Amino acid sequence: MSVHSARRSKVTHLELRKMKEQGERIAMLTAYDYSFARLCDQAGTDILLVGDSLGMVIQGQKNTLPVTMEHMIYHCQAVARSVEAASGRAMVVGDLPFMSYQSDLDEAMRNAGRLIKEGQAEAVKLEGGAEYAELVSKLVRVGIPVMGHIGLTPQSLHALGGFKVQGRDDLAAQKLRSDALALAEAGCFSLVLEGIPQELGAEITESLAIPTIGIGAGPECDGQVLVIYDLLGMNEEFRPRFVKRYENFAVRIRTAIDSYVGEVRSGAFPGPEHSFSRTEKSKDRPRAVAVGGVVAESEGGPLESVGVGCIPLRPPGHKS
């Protein structure tokens, strides 16, 4: 388990406020499935955002607009199960997708409730400014924590004229300051600032008691968020300025798969060590371990030999 995940128990909106007050930066990543979420949680990520960005990075859509409530609930469930199975520490936040909250307050309340009740998310995130303050207030009143999102809001890409930096002129910057204040006063526990000048990101962060999470909003935000696949370098063609690549998995994954394909075609895989025999007698009873839904069997040998013995799992029902 990461030293980062060992520092603190379950992350809540109260813990995030405390982190801001103490000057401790918040690390948020997107997660869409069990396996990646488990690794993010074990590594000490504070918040896992089940983002509607899944429409682009998982489904291959041009933007986030086609994502539905059913998609979001499905992926939230997978991420929530993963966090429970790992350290149980990270906070799970689910995006409210396009047109799930914009047209009607009652429908918005129902959909936010579905993400919490069916999706097992612990908070919801919605895009937009002061025009959603009433909705935020109502959600908070019934016990649903809300993360706001202003600046470059991907669900509004057509209205914004594309994925463009927002708040560069004085009028637009003042509108974002007003939106941030209105959302904070309505009860948002945190605010994502996306695609705005770093000076504006610093001003908004300084003016709010709630933490800000930046993505292309400069280093002065209280935390940062990246799409996990961007961090890992999974898409070589996608190189926005605000992304730092910590790995080059596109090359590494292709290399591994190329080796596998080559060995299958040459007959090198599977070898005797990967096969079972009717006549072979094992010295001890076979042992098995389930990791991420995959059962690995060890015929008397150490479980470390199958590459799973070094990852601690939380027993069912365990509470941290």
Q: Mean pLDDT across all residues, rounded?
A: 90
**How does the major sheet shape up?**
8 strands, parallel, barrel
Bulk shape: globular
Q: Distance N terminus to C terminus? A: 14 Å
CATH class category label of the domain at 13-231: Alpha Beta
The CATH fourth-level homologous superfamily of the domain at 13-231: Phosphoenolpyruvate-binding domains
Query: Total strand count, please?
Result: 10
Q: In words, what does this structure look like?
A:
- An eight-stranded parallel β-barrel has the order 1-2-3-4-5-6-7-8, surrounded by seven helices.
- Helix 6 packs parallel to helix 8 and helix 8 runs parallel beside helix 9.
- The chain is an alpha/beta fold.
- A hairpin with a 2-residue loop joins strand 9 (287-291) and strand 10 (294-298).
- It has a domain at 13-231: Alpha-Beta Barrel (TIM Barrel).
- The chain contains eleven helices and ten strands.
- It starts with 12 loop residues before the first helix and ends in a 22-residue tail after the last strand.
- The protein has helices at 13-21, 34-42, 54-57, 69-85, 105-117, 133-141, 157-160, 170-186, 198-207, 228-231, 249-266, and strands spanning 26-30, 47-50, 91-95, 123-127, 146-151, 190-194, 212-215, 223-226, 287-291, 294-298.
